[in-house]
Structures are given as C-alpha cells and as structure tokens.
Design brief:
5 domains; Jelly Rolls; single chain; 5-stranded mixed β-sheet; 35 strands; mainly beta
Length: 490
C-alpha cells in the first residue's frame, strides 16, 4: 500500500514539474503568442503591406513582442511590428519613426522570403534610415523599441532628386548675395558630367548645379554654409567652340572658392559631398568680401633702444590671399614687405598703418598707436663703509638717477654669502624717483649691523639691485652695482 502511495506521489511530482516547465517555456518563447492578435502586424507573417507613398501609420505596441528567431540587425529589441513594401520602380526611400511616443526607437529593413532567411538592407534609430529600393523586390520594415511601450509611428517617404540635379536644370541665380539649400541624398551623376575636379582625387557621386551671369565685372565667392560633411565647389564656363565645360576653379573641404567674373559670362557651379557623402547642402554665392587687415608687433612696450618687429597677420576670407602690403610707421618711414623691423629715435605716440591688397584688387587697412617710452634708471652712487667691526651698525646708501620719467623704484640690498650660497637678502626699499640731472640722485638709505660671522669671514661685499615697478627698464645693465668689500674685525 505504501509503495502504491509512493508511486502516486511521484506521479504528482512529475506532473507538477512538467506543468512548471511548460509555463517557463511559455514565458520564454510563448509570451508573444499570447499577444498575437492584439497587434495585427506583431509577427513577420502578418506584415502590413505598404501600397503607396508617402506612408504613415501608428500602432500601440504595448502588447507587441518578438518572435522566436526574429532578427535584430543593429540593436536589441523587445517589441516589434512589421511592414512590407514592393516598389513598382527603383526609388530612394527614407524611413523614420518620428512622432512615436517613445525615444528608444529601432528601425531595420530586410529582404528575404521568410523569418529565417532575412538579410539586412539598412538599420538605424531615432534619425531614421535611407535605402535604395529596387523595382519588384519586397522589403520588410521591422520597427520597435529597446524597452518602451506606447504608440509607434512609422513614416516612409520617397526621396526625390533635387530640382537642380542635372546641369541643364542648373538653378539660375539672379542676384547676390544668394543662399539655397538642397538635399543631395537622391542626387545623381549625368552621363558626361565632370566627376573629378582638380581639387579632389575620388570621383563625386551626387552633384547639384547653379548658374550665375554677372551684369558687370566682379569678384565672386562661392561656398557651402555650415557643412556637416566635407564638400567641394567647382566653377566652370562653356567652351566657345565646343560648348563643353572648362573648369576655372575648385575648392574642397571648407572655405570659399573665389573667381574673377566677367560681365555677360555665365559661370556654372557644381557642388557635392566628398567621399560619397550625401545630405543637406546650403550653397552660397556673394560678392567676395574684403580682406581683413591686421598685424602684431614686439616688444609691446618699446623704447628708443629696441628694434621693433612688425608682422602682417592679415587674412582673406575669400581664400585668394594677400599679395601686396604698405606700411607707414608714423615717423616718415615706410615698408612694403610682410615682416619689417623699425626703430624709433625718440619717445612718442606713433600711428602705424598697414594696407593690404589681394591679387584681384580688394583691399583693407588697419592702424594702431605704438607708444614708445624709454624707462631707464641707473645706480650712480653706492656708498658702503670701508672698514668696521662686529656689532656696529653702519649706513649704506644707494643713489638712483632717472633722466626721462618719474619712476617707482624698488632697491634690494644683498651681501655676499660664502661657498655656493651666492647672495643673501638684507632688505629692500621702495620709493618714487623724480627726474633729476645727471649728477643728482635719489637716495635709498639702509642700515646694517655687522655680525660676528662677518668678522669671522673678515669682510662683507654688498650688492644693490634696482627694479622699475610696472615698467621695463630699457637699459638694465646699470641697474646693478657691487661695492668694494668692507673689512670687518672682531
């Protein structure tokens, strides 16, 4: 009897384990089947067919799931829905999920016939994706989220070539300045169109065209405004005999392409992204801006003893460059090179002017005032005792002379130290020094008490250093003085 009951209990246990296993499998793989029917296109086999463009659809994916074996091209997904699209003609498609109630969007496009043989065409997330759809082929769009639930919105639009994709449809510019934006995602290359202007090595793949005929001679600059990828702008005119295009200029990457344009001649501008880049391009054309004149110099606080170095730092935003220069130093002297030097013979305020010209005749000027001030003080008296003894306090006088300007001066008094110690500070004094004649000085009076250590050495050598406060001394060589040694006895 007990054996039978044990068998019965074992059977119940096995049954419970089986139920638990089935429940776990349902949670792992079968949860999506519970949601099927709540979202019509939750699974691949029920993908909603897109029959026309533009297309927009919204669906609540809160109860959506993923199927066993469902692919994940770019990012892992938790909830997905499916759409299919079969174009009647080759076309470029942009797909995005703008308008969804969540931000963790995932979007993938596949080709294939069943869930287990899909191959990825494109994938992306918030900003959307673009792909070339071939006529007669079926594309499956998988859209969903990493983890969020809510309303999903799918948008599919056909990307058309810009209106000025072809040379014959070049956008005619009637006045300057001009700025126009086009999306080159679907732009093409025509048969016979130049694809390797001299400023690039790799052929361009998606171009747009502009045309401009000036009413008078002028210098014009073409550019791409705020590019998000590397671009080029090339300029052409027609050959009068063959009608073909003659390249007259090209500028790659960033900046301006500037050309001299003749009245009545039509100039064609070709622009594109480099290295197969496509997307929004804003083409601008304007009368070439003037150069920006500027210069720097050194030293910034010159004296009559300094040779001043001037350096032209002008630039041309139109990328033609600076060809000629004219300097006026404000004292009758002039120069014409990029980096002249000049020395003034007297203190004063001099207006230095620089004018620059580009090869096409644009010009600009700038000027600034250069103040020449010769600050120069000198130690002309240094009185120290000839001999003394340990314990005595003696006066030490340093006389400072200034001939040009009243100066604020600090004098440091030092004494020689034995060995490698060099000089030891005794003290410093700061005071104003008025302008005086050559023989008169302003005294800096120190007191020093000689020590037993001085007596042991037997002498003290004093040194004075004068520093002009807040100005550079033009002749620092006479700002230091060393006195004859003072004999020190016990």
């Amino acid at each position: 009897m007990n054996a039978w009951r044990r068998k019965e209990c074992n059977a119940v246990n096995h049954y419970a384990i089986l139920l638990f296993a089935l429940f776990a499998l349902a949670m792992l793989f079968g949860s999506s089947s519970l949601a099927y029917g709540q979202v019509p296109n939750d699974d691949f086999e029920n993908a909603i067919a897109i029959t026309s463009l533009p297309f927009t659809a919204q669906v609540d994916i809160s109860s959506a799931s993923i199927q066993l074996g469902e692919p994940s091209s770019c990012y892992p997904v938790q909830r997905t829905v499916w759409y299919s699209f079969s174009p009647a003609a080759d076309t470029l498609i942009r797909a995005d999920m703008i308008g969804s109630s969540f931000s963790d969007t995932v979007l993938s496009v596949y080709q294939g016939t069943a869930l287990n043989n899909l191959s990825s065409v494109a994938c992306g997330y918030a900003s959307g994706i673009a792909f070339l759809a071939t006529a007669g082929q079926t594309y499956y769009v998988q859209s969903g989220s990493y983890y969020s639930s809510g309303t999903l919105q799918l948008n599919l639009n056909e990307i058309l070539p810009p209106p000025n994709d072809n040379f014959e449809n070049a956008w005619v510019i009637t006045e300057l300045p001009f700025l126009n934006s086009q999306d080159t995602t679907a732009a093409t290359i025509e048969q016979g169109e130049p694809t390797t202007p001299f400023c690039v090595y790799n052929p361009v793949e998606a171009t747009i065209w502009y045309a401009f005929t000036p009413a008078e001679d002028m210098t014009i600059s073409a550019y791409i405004a705020n590019p998000t990828f590397m671009t080029l702008v090339a300029a052409y005119i027609r050959d009068g005999e063959t009608g073909g295009l003659i390249e007259i200029g090209c500028h790659a990457q960033y900046g301006m392409l500037t050309i001299l344009a003749e009245a009545g001649v039509t100039y064609y501008f070709q622009t594109a992204g480099m290295y197969s880049a496509r997307g929004p391009l804003s083409f601008g054309l304007e009368v070439a801006p003037p150069p920006i004149a500027d210069f720097y110099l050194g030293p910034g606080d010159p004296s009559i003893f300094d040779t001043i170095y001037f350096n032209d730092s002008s630039n041309d935003p139109a990328n033609v460059g600076i060809q000629t220069r004219s300097w006026d130093f404000g004292d009758g002297a002039t120069a014409a090179d990029c980096c002249p030097t000049h020395r003034y013979s007297a203190d004063g305020a001099y207006t230095v002017s620089l004018t620059v010209w580009t090869p096409d005749g644009r010009s600009a000027s700038t000027s600034r005032v250069v103040r020449v001030m010769t600050h120069d003080v000198a130690i002309t008296r240094f009185i120290t005792p000839k001999a003394t003894s340990s314990g005595q306090t003696r006066a030490i006088t340093v006389g400072i002379n200034s001939k040009r300007y009243p100066e604020d001066v600090t004098v440091r008094l030092l004494k020689g130290a034995p060995g490698y110690q060099g000089w030891e500070d005794i003290g410093s004094l700061r005071q104003s020094v008025p302008v005086r004649s050559a023989n008169r000085t302003t005294s800096f009076n120190f007191n020093y008490t000689f020590t037993s250590n001085d007596a042991e050495i037997g002498k003290v050598t004093f040194r004075a250093v004068a520093v002009v406060t807040n100005n550079r001394d033009a002749m620092p060589g006479d700002n230091e003085a060393t006195a004859f040694p003072t004999k020190v006895s016990r």
